Structure formats: C-alpha cells, structure tokens
User: Fold these one by one.
Assistant:
Number 1:
Amino acid sequence: MGFIKFVKEELQVIKERDPAIKTNMEVFLYPSFKAIISYRIAHKFYMKKHYFLARWISQRAVRKTGIEIHPGAKIGKGLFIDHGSGVIIGETAILGDNITLYQGVTLGGTGKESGKRHPTLKDNVMVSAGAKVIGSFTVGENSKIGAGSVVIHPVPPNSTVVGVPGRVVRRDDQKLPRNTMDQVHLPDPISYELCRLQSDNVRLKNKLKTMDDKLASMSEDIKRINHISLGNENNNYQNER
Ligand SMILES: CC(C)(COP(=O)(O)OP(=O)(O)OC[C@H]1O[C@@H](n2cnc3c(N)ncnc32)[C@H](O)[C@@H]1OP(=O)(O)O)[C@@H](O)C(=O)NCCC(=O)NCCS
C-alpha cells in the first residue's frame, strides 16, 4: 500500500473513532499513526526473517509512542489505538479488521504457553483502557472488553466482557441474567474482613463501656462505705471523749 493511501485510510479511521480530531494534519501527531506505520515496515522485515532490523524499528517506535507492537503480530486493516501509551501487542497476536484499542491494553501471553501464546481478536473488537487479554484464545467479532478487565478465556462474538476475571455480561445486545453470573456481588474478602473487624471493635467498645460503668458505680459504693465508716468512727471517738 502506498504512503498516501495509508495516510488517507488512517485519517478515515481516526475521524470515525476519535471525535477529538479537528483537522486532517493532526493525523500525523497521533501515536497510533506513527506506531502502525513503524509496525507495517517492521512486519515486512520480520516476514523476510530480518529479525534484528524488525525489532530495532519496533523498539524505536516504542520509545516515540509508548506503543509496543511486536513485528511478528498479524494485524488487519483499520486498527486504531486511542491515546496509545502502554499498549502492548505480543508476537503471536492476530488482529482482524477495524480493531480499537485504548491506552494501557495488553494483548499478551500468560507465560505458560509456547508457540501461539497471544490472543486472536476478530473483526470490530474493542478493548477498553487498561484491559488485559492474556492467553492464546479468540475474542469473537464485534465484542467489547470493558475498561480494567482481565480476560483469560475465549469470548463469544457480539459480547461485552467486564471484570477480573472477565465475564460476559451482555451477548447479542441482551444483558445476561445476574443470577447466573453475578459480577457485582462477588464475595470481597477485604471488605468482609473490614466488616468483621468493625463489628469486633463495636463489641469490644461496648464491653469496655459496661466495665467502666461498673467500676465507676463500685468506686461510688466504696466511697459511700468509707464515708459511713469514717462517720461512725468519729461518733465513737466523740462518745468516748
Ligand atoms: C464495557 C463498555 C464498553 C460498555 O459496553 P456495553 O456493552 O454498552 O455494556 P453496558 O454499559 O450495558 O454494561 C453492562 C454491565 O457491565 C457493567 N460494566 C460496564 N463497564 C464495566 C467495567 N469496565 N468494569 C466493570 N463493570 C462494567 C455495567 O455497569 C453493566 O452492569 P449492570 O448490568 O449491572 O448494569 C464500557 O463500560 C467501557 O468499559 N468503556 C470504556 C471505554 C474506554 O476505555 N474509554 C477510555 C477513553 S480514554
């Protein structure tokens, strides 16, 4: 593909997916634009087994954009990486057409697999800010991964996945019933522990207050007894005199 055609296509992609762009010239400032150009060149060298050169180009792009696309990754048309910083695309990742990635996305491996280690994203997948998709599985077409999710299992097409670990909350535009997969009311061990400590604290405070009250009333009683016995002693003394 010629450079002019590439720029036109990128411009179209960015205009479609980033409402923040105002003028055509801005396309040259997008980290996504720079990173994808570098990737396309690096990928050609990688395919010709010029691995060092390919990595050199991709690492240079990392320093300039904060986006690390391994030259071995296979990427279709219309990839858009919004903001960009912190995006990592692993060597054996396969991306279909019209994928959108936001900042902080990792398409990585679990560290336990060899060979194909990274995910495959089918056409029109969107991976939101900070999401981690790790492992060699497929995310079906038109699916969305929510911000901050950690996806470790295959995702069916037309689904929305959120949470850690990622679970499907919507499929074919239908919300999935909560009783089968409650994302929000998962047991939270930290808040459970805090609640337990809080109730212990209240119980101990009440116990301490009861003991304090008892001590106060006992010291009142002792004072009263002392007072009475002192009075008696005085009377006896006066009587003796
Ligand atoms: C996932 C997302 C794409 C919405 O997809 P959607 O298919 O329209 O899903 P919905 O908004 O109907 O949400 C479905 C459920 O998931 C929950 N949910 C949505 N996003 C979530 C997230 N990131 N984490 C946890 N839960 C989330 C919703 O609260 C909703 O729960 P409910 O059924 O109890 O109401 C969106 O929430 C998201 O994460 N966008 C981030 C985009 C981004 O990265 N922007 C950065 C720009 S700089």
Note: The longest strand covers residues 167-171.
Number 2:
Amino acid sequence: MPDQLTKLAYQTLQQGKGLFGLAHKEMSSRLMGLLAPEGTPKTVPVDPQLMGRLKTSMDALGELDWQEAEQGLYPAALLFDAPWLDWASRYPLVWLDMPSTWNRRQQRNVRDLPQDVEPAAYPDYYLQNFHHQTDGYLSDHSASLYDLQVELLFNGNADPMRRRLLAPLLRGLRQFADRPATGIRVLDVATGTGRTLHQIRSALPKAQLVGVDLSTAYLRQANRWLNDLSPGLCQLVQANAENMPLADGSFQAVSCVFLLHELPAAARQNVINDCWRVLEPGGVIVLIDSIQLADSPDFTPIMENFRRVFHEPYYRDYISDSIEGRLSEAGFEAITAETHFMARVWSARKPA
Ligand SMILES: C[S@@+](CC[C@H](N)C(=O)[O-])C[C@H]1O[C@@H](n2cnc3c(N)ncnc32)[C@H](O)[C@@H]1O
C-alpha cells in the first residue's frame, strides 16, 4: 500500500514537472519573440484568477491520481514511470526542432511533410503538420519527440490525464468478470507512441492489448516502449480508425485518447461507429480528449489559446461538438462524462 512518503514524492515530482513545463514554455516563447517575431501567435490574456483555477484543477487531478493508485486500480510505481534518461537525452532535440516549427507557423505552411509519404495511403485531413510539428505524424523524428512535447505542453500531466480512463474501463469490464483475465481484449484506438496502452497494461497485466494508429513511425516507437523489455506483447496495427481491419464484436473494451479533436466531424463519428462495431455487446468504450466549451466555459481563453498557438484545424469545431450525441447516435447507452484538468472523459456501454 503506498504510504505518505510516496505521496509526498509524487507531489514533489508533479510540482517539479509543472515548473519545468512552465519554464520551458516561457523560455521558448521569449526566444520565438526574439528570433521569429512575425510568427508569434496572438494569444488572448489569461487573468490570474483563471490561472488559480487552473492550478486547483491540476492539483485535484494529482490527488485523484494518487487516490486511485492507493485504491489499487494501478500500481503506485506507475505514478513515477517515464523513460527519464531517454527524455533527458531527447530534450535538446526539442529545442533544435523549434526554428523549423516557427518557420512553418510564420509561413502558414501546414502541409510540410516528408517527400516519401504516399498521400493516397492516408485521409486528406491527416496530411498536415498538427501542432506545426516537423513531419506531422509521419516520421521517426516526430515520433521520438512526441511524448516529451506532450509532457511539456501539459506541465507533466499527460499520463495523469490518460490514467483517468482506467477507473471507467475497469468498471465497464466487470460485465465480463466471469471470464479469465487472459480472455479480455482491449483496443486502444489512435494509440500513437503507446503511452495509453502502457497505463492500461499496468492495470490489466494479463489482458490482450491491441493498438491501432495511422502512423507507422509512431507505432514503431510504441513497439520499442511497449514490447522491448516486457514479457507480454501488445499487438500494433497500422490502420485508419474509421475503418479498422478488426473483427466485429472482438473486444470487451475500447479506449481512445486525444484523437477526436484532430478529426473533422464526419471522421469523428466514423471512428465512434467503428469502435461500436468492434466491441462485443456489453463492452465498454472510454474516450478522453480536450475539455469543451459546454463543460468548462471558464477555461474558454485556454482553449482559444491552444488553437491559436498550435495548428489544430478541427479544434474549434470539436470544442462545441456533442460527443454524448455522437456516442448515442452510434448506439451506445449509459453514457457518462467527467472533467479532470484539461481532459474530458466519456464512458459508455454497447447494449448487451
Ligand atoms: C494527439 S495523438 C494521440 C496519441 C495517443 N493516443 C496519446 O495519448 O498520446 C493523435 C494520434 O492519432 C493518430 N491518428 C490521427 N488520425 C487517425 C486516424 N484516422 N486513424 C488512426 N490514427 C489516427 C495519429 O497518428 C496520432 O498518433
């Protein structure tokens, strides 16, 4: 059972990551102001009161993360888990990559992708430099920096937000409590570099885990993180989440983290419909994505700034979309939603 000393260590770690993330963002935006002033995004002001509310919701996320570990939903060791040495060695690359990011932003060039990319192999909406990142999602270079960039963006709260899917996932899986743990199949849609699958595996070490993503490079990175040193293997499949090459009713749980805001509305619905198709009746879906205008109106300036700073072409549409409506259109029932810091978490069940 985790003890108070471990809790203090976790809080200290989170504070340290938070300060590092803030300092990184402050230094990089100052440098951009100096070296590439024309590309500097025009953000809306965020008042100190709002910053205070943001800090409160971040602390609440950390507290819940701790409590759920203490309840045994996942091991406390997961709270400290990250490839620290690897990230430290990649951090200078994040800085080296910045000038090309500023360039793209300045020139409004959002289709700057590797020459060898076969456009016919991807939906058109995908062929962009999301977040202005070098090569979009389509290179090993991009995949090698992604996790670190997300950690910096969320001030060290990316995994605590991802872990919010575990409680509803485990609750939903009670429906299949009579099955052996090894007979449970969980699919992570748009798995990227595998951080979500890693959290799921810690909570469900015996389940069969599958990840789908469009990016071979990101899946290669996921394969390194997930499969190199672990006794169990996660299966990784390169495919469009709108139409996955997976059998109907073949999973008891499906998760999908930080994908919906990067899709046009029609693709968003297609992905949710395909999740429904691959779930066995009685199965659970858990979605995590950005907070939205309806649930977090106070945080509107934060959402607005996110859209202005990063190339996120579908974010404006996403923040006013009804994900509950889309889940119910697909056929899901027992839909719930909750907010944790910058994350909205939906869960729902495919009728048994
Ligand atoms: C913001 S990242 C999120 C990755 C991961 N879920 C996480 O928590 O970090 C979005 C991911 O969605 C993938 N993606 C985008 N559109 C997709 C689609 N139509 N089908 C499958 N994957 C897609 C991208 O390649 C990328 O890995």
Note: The two ends are 36 Å apart (CA to CA).
Number 3:
Amino acid sequence: MSAAYLNYMNIDRAKLHKVYRYAIDWLFPNICPCCECKIEYDKDFCKECLESLTVYDGKINIPYVDIFTAYCIYNENISPAILKFKHTDAGNSYYAFAYRIAEAIKKSCINANVIVPIPMTKESLRKRGYNQAELIAKELRYMINIPYANVLIKTRQTAQQKTLDRKGRAVNLKGAFAVDPKYNALAGKRLLLIDDVCTTGSTFAEAAKVLKENGAEKVFAASFAKTPKSREERPDEDTTAPEKIFEKISKNIY
Ligand SMILES: [Zn+2]
C-alpha cells in the first residue's frame, strides 16, 4: 500500500503500525531486550530493566553536527542488549531503542524533517543481513512522525572502530560515506542521523560532513546509548567493552 494512498485515505500510519505490532505479538511475543521477560506489545523494556539504565544528560560537540542527543549511558546494564542486537535482529530491541531515542529527541531542540540511518557497506549488510541503524530508523519514523531515507551510502570497508583510538577512528572513516545520487537535492533539508551507539562521535562527524557538503541545512544526530568519556579511548581494556561482554554472553546467543 503506497504512502500516497494512506495519506489520501487519511489513515494515521502510527496507529496502523500499532495495530500491526498488536497482531504480530500473538506470533512473536514482545520481550524485554535486557532480561528477555515477556512484556506488553507496546512496551520497550520491563520496569526493572528500564530503571537500571542511566539516562544520558551530557553535552558533547560533534564536528558538523548541530545537536547531538542520546537516551542512556553505555554501561554493563545495557551493553548485553546492544550486543545481542548487533548479532541478531530477533526480538524487540530496535523498537525499544527507537522508543527511547524518540524520548530523547522530544526533550531536545532537534527539528529534523528526514531521518538518515548510518549506513553499512553492501558486504557488511550481506554478512549481517540487516543494518541495525536502519531498523531503528524505521521504527522511529512512526514515533516522531517524520520519514526516513537511506540518504547515505558507505563506499568502502573500514576497520572496526572499537579497535582504534579517537584519532584513528576519525582517520579510518575519512571519505567512507557518500550521498546516494538518488538523494542529491539536500538543500534546505534538516537531517537526523541515527545509530545505536555513539562512542567518540567520529562516525556522526564524518557522515554529517558529507551531508553538509551536499547542501544539508542542518544535521542532527541521535543514538540510543553514548559511551562515557572514560571508556572512549581504550575500549579493549574495559571489561564492559562490547567484545568483552560478548565473550561472556555468546553462549546464550547461539
Ligand atoms: Zn527486563
């Protein structure tokens, strides 16, 4: 069913999506991304897990990004859920993360008109089967009522950001993003970049740079979690770093 047809019929797409979630819950019951207990079809986390998250209230300046926001601090309470999401798209994580990103956006001065997920290369997409930032963006569009588009493409494979320090991360991503020729008219657009986790902000900075060079009026960025400053530089020595946590939980995933 086309978007134009839905608009013509004056149907609220957010409400329609809610009905879809209610129906699908019968087949694939909604679960809490952290503890995997059963939760209502329209809930994001169970009460206990939600209360265990540390809300992000920091302020960082990311080059080329007008406003950045995130919902929570990346810590040991949320990292297993984020890691599971990086290895399987099953469950409710992308809905839950989008729900909380929407909360953070509503509290900010972000006034975007298009959501843009951070892209993956075609090769990575083929290996993983999905782009987690795109899954979040698809849910988020119903929550903040603006469309999403894959405006950016990733033009080359880069080293894993977690293996590099701050300087290395910025160099690693240089020239790695481009605007998809389908979306070359970015003048006047206020774009909102979306990713699951923001560490140093290098990925958002490089993506925002490309969007601004192509005429975007404003570029905002939002992630579900933000790594605290103390863990940005030496993630490999951090026992709550993604790869360490993954070692601990990998038995439960497969
Ligand atoms: Zn829970």
Note: The pocket of zinc ion is lined by residues 32, 34-35, 37, 45-46, 48-49 (CB under 6 Å).
